[in-house]
Each structure stands twice: as structure tokens, then as C-alpha cells.
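Quick one - inputs below.
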Amino acid sequence: MKPYLREKVPKTLSEIPEYTVFEAGYLVSKNAGWRNVRPTVDKAKCVGCLKCYLCCPDGVIAKQDGKIAIDYDFCKGCGICAKTCKLGAIEMEAEI
Amino acid sequence: MSITAKTLDENEYFYGHKACAGCGGSLAVRIALKVLGERTVAVLPAGCMSAVGFNFPQLCFSNNAIISTFAGTASMLTGIEAGLRAQGITDFQAVGFAGDGGTADIGLQALSGAIDRNDDILYICYDNEAYMNTGIQKSSLTPFGARTTTTPAGKNIRGNLRPKKNMFEIVAAHDIPYAATANVGFLQDFMRKVEKASKIKGTKFIHIIAPCPTGWGIPSDETVEIAKEIVNCGLWVLAEYENGEYKLNYRPKNFSNPADYLKKQSRFRHLTDEDIQTIITSRDIKWGYIDKNYKFNQEEKL
Amino acid sequence: MRKFLSGNEAFAEGIRLARVQVISAYPITPQTIVVERLSEMVEDKSLNSQFIHVESEHSALSCAIGASAVGARAFTATSSQGLLYMAECLVYASGGRFPIVMMNANRSTALPWNIYGDQRDSLSLLDCGWIQAYAENAQEALDLALMSYYISEHKDVSTPFMANLDGFVLTHTYEVVDVPTAEQADELLPKFETENKLDFSNPKNLAFSAGPEYNALFKYKEHLGMLAAVDVIKEAELKFKKIFGREYTGLVENYKTDDAEYILITLGSIAGLVRETVDKLRENGDKVGLLRLRYIRPFPNDEIAKALNNAKAAAVLEKDISFGNEGTVYTNVNSALKKAGLTLPVSDYIGGLGGQDIAQTEIERIFSEMKVETQKTEFIGTGGEGI
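Output:
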């Protein structure tokens, strides 16, 4: 369970809610465009300690097969994960 | 055994938000919600976290969440808690996340009222030490010396002239059931405190230092590291208040040099050696008081 | 059951009968007795409600908003400076479409300090998006308390409701009031149901931001909600009459206006004296009438135009002033007449400020001055000078 991207973007009077109330966790835009560096994970070095998972302000690091996976749709490239990883398993690489 | 990264709820409750990269406040909110779980109602006043998380139709909380007025975090929490209880619903957490200005300035009266009534709510102050959402203005939790856009560092005045308000002890002085300080550089400790607070009936308060790369003038990847430094150099104290007693959670064996912590941030770059000495002196006075008045068990690990 | 009650106490009885679930309020003269009575009802268990002792009016309404946002029926009460102190939360409640009911004891606003009644407090907040009703007597106060939730909570309306009672003159004056039974009240008022709430089975994000591309759409819906109240008020009063036998007449009350040549428009408790004056002047053969505005938001544009359609002149008697212009009620009335193409002369009498006594002779004078059929704005008691 987490907020996720929806196809439908309400726009008109009849599409928006009657009051300022709407479905929780309704996303219509990504944050990927904010990034000029991206974290890449060296799976061989990652031991799944989850320090990076814990420290991510955007929650884009998930547990996967005992290691980690990054949701690049919402990663802003802050680099906290790379700095936190004492094993050097995460490198920040320039976005092209 | 308290919650760890491995046992933490895998759901993400605060996701897709538009906070600046490396935002300490959003990290505090994210972790607290993962500890509290899905039956949580979050109240966020006008401020960074509401601005970045609730812009229709991009709504970034997967749990129940609502924006309150700037001054009304605690009073809205009170209403939510009372409204649910009035309907016989009791298995939930009502948590507020307000910034330093929303807590120590404009929201202080409502917070005091809620503690006075001992409403069953958890109030978390994510402290980035200035009004960051409006572009870095001084709050009463801005530390001595910090440059903000309303405490400029010029020839005549070198930034903020007043020390940081002691919110932790102000809150504790209400005889609150539980109060704690925390820091995003010590997330394990924060998770333990949130979990502990969630199991206590009555009003709970956690004051967490949450660095703001934009306002502090640090690279976005420094948030967690610099948060550790503020504790290690003795300028922030990890502590709890419970059953009428103060308890220190961590005492660095030797403080690191505050100058190193301060000089890494552009908001402190103008400080003179004399200013830094002022900061060190006030730190030492504070620790003299803490060592005298706070209980500390060396054996207890963070 | 018939009881001897003040306006405040009558309203509190109505709130008890409405089975309000959360009450948050802060004391202020002359409202205080409402919350005192409600706290006694909670204590003696004749009312099952959470009573929250807030530390300010801002928190009183903020707390009520929180309660409403989880689907609880909420109530607060205030007056004067307290109403102004909660002003931020007023627009929050209406913008968020939270159907909270608030009783306001109309009282002068500082400076100079004054605890007595006038209507500048609520009338200065006409644009804050709340339904505004003005009671004339204690019975109407109780009945409004009951009907307010029916109207406010209706899904097409979902708009907060401010019931105004003139400070002291109504809040503290005792009358015999018919207090309905709980069964009767329950028959009128269903349990509060709304989609506008946080919900654990279907989580919601509430009270969000909406940028320039959406903002007007939400504000338009808010406007429609207020307009929808016009029909819902009628619906509520019809049901009310069936159950309780008492009849109310929507946004306005016409008293002998059908054939009236001269009509005085007013609101609140002063209407009682105006009614007496109308009867007295009618005995002399004067064709005069009273148009009492029971609601001022939504505004009774059509009702005013209809009542004044055949009149030769009219006047507004109001307890407020929009400094630098004229009385706000007068401004609104003129707008209604202009839209209806009516050009009769209408004067504005500003009276009762800070509890100033309005004698029957003053009302007689206003009616006699209407016959001159000129237009003026006058501050009563300042020597008859116009502005």
C-alpha cells in the first residue's frame, strides 16, 4: 500500500469532488524530472541492511529479494542513500 | 524489542510528495507514519509538509490525512480524537506533524490547551529551525547565530540574536504523560519513541530535528549526516520525559567541535570565533544543567 | 413541555435535542450561559456528548472542524471578539464544507469596549461562507437550533450554520418556550451522514490545496451549496411544521406587507417592537408593514423584491455600519431592488449600536419619515444628522 499514479486526472466541475475531500494517495505526476543524478545499486555489494531504505525521505527504496530496489519515478536524486551506504553499494550517476 | 528497518511496516504512507530533495521533515513524517500504521489520522497545518503533500489532485498520503489551520494542529487533533471517540471508534492514532513555527510560535497556545486537557493525541514537531515553506524566516526555534531572511547577517547584526526556545521542557512543564526529543540522524531512536508514544494514553509530544538542505545551506545528501553531528557536538540532546522525570538517552563521550557542524552550513558561515565561543559556552551551561537534572543510564544503548 | 427559558437556554435545549456529539466552546459574554447549560446536560447525562474545554475561540472552531471531519455532529458558540478571533476558522469550515452549527450572541465589537448587543460582529463576516440566520425570540432560537443541523448537513448544502441571537435582549430574556420531546426531535433530524469525512475503510485526504486551475471550481461549488440552502430551508420548515405544529416562513417573515405602502426591513429581536408599532399605526389607518429578514445568507433577493413590489417607500433598520459606506443590510437590500428593477426610495437607519435603546417612538418616526419618500442614511441618536 502506497500512493500510486492514476490515469484519470480530474479537470472539470463534474469531475472534481463536491467538497475538499478525495481519495487518499492519489498521484498524477512523477518526480523523476527533478533528478540530475540517479542512485544505482551494485547488487553484488548490497547486503540488504536497509539503512538506505530507512533514510530515504521519499520512501522510494523498497525491499526486494533480500536487497533493495529503487522507484525511479519518484526518486529525486538527493543522494542520502549513497551517503548512508557504508559498503559503497550505491553510486550517484549523472542523468544524461 | 522495538521496531527496526527490517520489521518496519513496508507500506509507504507519504509518497510522491514535492518536498525538496533531501528534506528532513518528510523523512520524519514518513518514518513516523510507518511506525503508527494505517489506522492513523494525520493532521498537518499550513507549512512545508502540507504544501508538498496535498496539492489536489496530487494527494500524497495513503492514510487519512487533513490540513489544519496554521495555529490549529493540536485543536484539530482534539476534535478528530473526540469525534471518533463519540462514535465509539477507539483503535486509531491521531498524529499531528507541525514545523517549528507551527509549534513553538503560532501553534503553541493550542498545543498547550491539548496537553492541559490530556487529549489522546501524538504531536510531532519536525524542527527545521525556521519558516522554510515561506522562504527561511526566523522562528522561535531558530538557533542563535543563524542567518535567515528576517535575521540577515550583516555588518551590524550577525543573524539571529536569540537562543532556541526549549520546547521540550516547556511541554514537559505541563506534566505531559510523554515527551521526547529526537533527530533524523538517529532514526532507530525516533522509531522507538514514536512506538512508545503510540502506546501511551493521553497527550504525547516528540520534537525531532529535521535538517532542511534549502534553508540550512547544505548539499541534499547531507541531511542525515549533519543531523548526527548536531547531536555529537552537543547542540541537540536526545531525551525523554515520563512519569515526571527527565531521562537522557545519549551522551557523546567527547563532543565533536561545534565549529565543524556550524561551518558546513551557509546559514552559519558568517559566524566569528567569538560567536562560536558563545554557542559553545551556552552548550556547556546547558549540559551542566542536563547532567544535574536528567537521569542517564550508561548501559542503555540508543 | 413548556419551560421558562432565556434565549441562550432555549438554544442549548435545541442543541441537546439535536444529539450533538462534540461541543467545543470558550466563554464570552453574553454567550456563556449556552455552554454552561450544555456542560450541565453532559454532567447529568441528559446529553451524551464530548465537551471540550478549549483555550480559545480559534481552537473552539478548529476542534469542531476536526470533529466534523470524522463525521461527528459538532457545535460551538461565541460572540463578538470571539467570533472575530475565530475568523480564520470560519472560512476554513465553509471552504471545507463542514456542516458545523454555531450560535453567535450578537454583541458590539471593540473599540470602545462594550458587551451589549449589536450585529456588527456577524454582519462584518457575511462573506465568510456561513449560512446566517437571526432569531427573534427564544422559541425561534430553539427551533433554529434543531433545524440548523437539518439544513446545514443536507448533502446538497454541506455548509456551516451561524444562528444569531441578539445579545442580552434575546440571550438573557426569559420567555415561555415549548421544548419538544426527544422523539419529535429525532423525527426531524436524521443521524449525521456525510461523504466529506476521513474514513478508515476508504482513506481520504481532506482540506487540501487547489491551484488556480481548480480553485474557482471548488468556490463555485461552495456557492451552489449555499444557494441550495434556500430550498432546503423550506423543506426543513415544512417537516418541522408537520412534527411540531409551528410554522416558519423561509428566508423572510412578512408581517402585514401585502397591502403596505411603507415597509420597515429589519432583523433579529427588534422585529418584535416593530411588529407592535405596525399594529399601533395600523389602528390609525397607516398602511405599514414589517419585513423581517430571518436569513441574510443565503440572501432573500426575491423575497425582498416581492414584498416591496407595491410599496411607496421602505427603510432598513440595522445594528451595524460598514464604515465609510452605509449599513451592510441596506447595501444588500438595494442590490435586490436594483436587480428587480424597483426604484422606490429606501432609507437606512443605523441603530442599537453597543446596546443603544431603540424606543417605539423612533420606529414611529422612521415610518413617518418614509412618507416623505426621500432617501437617507441616519445614525440614530446622533441628533438626526444624515451621512
